């Protein structure tokens, strides 16, 4: 595959993986928790490096997953203690992210870890960081990591689809019929953590947050069926990656930033033109209500 194709494939995998995972965050009204986890996993990455002295993907995944789950746990703990959910997210997010920044500056300043890279990523380098088996180059490491995490997420969704669906739409009913809501909650947080760290190195926290929220929010405006929402969110993620890449090439700007912007523009278009929840359709419906009957 060409250099261009690898970048588009990497961005598309980020869009699909984050998009389908983010749908459940949107339905559970926990979108900003994705922002918190996408930043606090920096602490997990740094701790994994300090313990293992390695930047291998498996250590990063373990460290980020643990800290991602800790983030969800602390937010849940503060919320159940009477702190408002948005305040709880803000406290945990800023505290853990700040600790990660301090540890980077103190112990990992000379390593391929820095705050700017963590926020913005550098997808242009992913085609050169490849995996070699028996002397044969089998493609970029980011593609294999994202592909593996996508497979794991799809498998989890397939196995627990009913539980995810009921717990997302009606948690009280899920408790009543015996679904382990807390287990489903932390399973979902684990998915978010895995997805975040798999995307983190190549595209940075900003695009991860955009892809976790925007495709799902866009799909939510277009359908009332969960399985359709999952497919649409994946499609929006791919379109954002493709449009963003060619826009960045044309304008000579950040690829990750252009992909996030493309996702925002697609959402804006759907927000106006959606046949059921769109601004235009709502205005037309109001006009029909207020117009005099003939």
CATH homology group: ABC transporter involved in vitamin B12 uptake, BtuC
H/E topology pattern: HHHHHEEHHHHHHH
The profile of the biggest β sheet is:
2 strands, antiparallel
Beta-strand residue fraction: under 5%
Alpha carbon gyration radius:
20 Å
**Backbone structural class:** mainly alpha
Overall morphology: globular
CATH topology: ABC transporter involved in vitamin B12 uptake, BtuC
Number of helices: 12
| Helical amount | over 70%
CATH architecture: Orthogonal Bundle
Ranges where pLDDT stays below 50 over 5 or more residues in a row are none
Across the major sheet, the strand order is 1-2
Distance between the termini: 63 Å
Overall structural domain count: 1
CATH class designation = Mainly Alpha
Characteristic key phrases:
12 helices; transport; Manganese/zinc/iron transport system permease protein; mainly alpha; transmembrane helix; ABC_TroCD; ABC transporter involved in vitamin B12 uptake, BtuC; two-stranded antiparallel ribbon; globular; 294 residues
Task: Give a short summary of the structure.
With 294 residues, this protein is mainly alpha-helical. It has twelve helices and two strands. The protein has a single domain (3-213), classed as Orthogonal Bundle (ABC transporter involved in vitamin B12 uptake, BtuC), CATH 1.10.3470.
